[in-house]
Specification:
With 120 residues, the protein is an alpha+beta fold. The protein has two helices and seven strands.
Length: 120
């Protein structure tokens, strides 16, 4: 099983791949709190922080969820949550502490809508 640094790095490159395919220019950066700089089709420059999970974890009496931790106090413009095992991502404009996202939320439709909403 890969370590958390490898999982995070895979999430960063997966996010860049997905955004580049949709016409958003991405630059991988090694700056505390930001993982990508992106230039949207409309010319906006945004910072992106990527959170990745290799698989969901079951919770007692609850739905199966992907869990994402935020250790950074740096605020980014966009947060990418990546489910590597399926592989899909969801974009959000905030990261309040830690976040748990159900497996059912990671659909192609939700992925495309989140990209459209935050990057165009």
């Amino acid at each position: 099983m890969p370590d958390s640094e490898s999982i995070g790095r895979a999430g960063e490159y997966f996010t860049g791949y997905i955004l580049e395919l949709r016409g958003t220019r991405t630059t991988h950066v090694d700056i505390y709190g930001h993982d990508l700089w992106v230039r949207t089709k409309s010319g906006r420059m945004l910072t992106v922080q990527v959170k990745a999970a290799s698989r969901p974890t079951p919770e007692p009496r609850s739905k199966v969820r992907y869990h994402f931790k935020n250790r950074s106090k740096v605020v980014s413009d966009v947060y990418s949550f990546v489910a590597l095992d399926i592989p899909r991502l969801l974009l959000f404009d905030s990261m309040p502490g830690n976040r748990a996202i159900t497996v059912e939320s990671f659909t192609d439709k939700n992925m495309e809508e989140s990209i459209e909403r935050l990057l165009y």
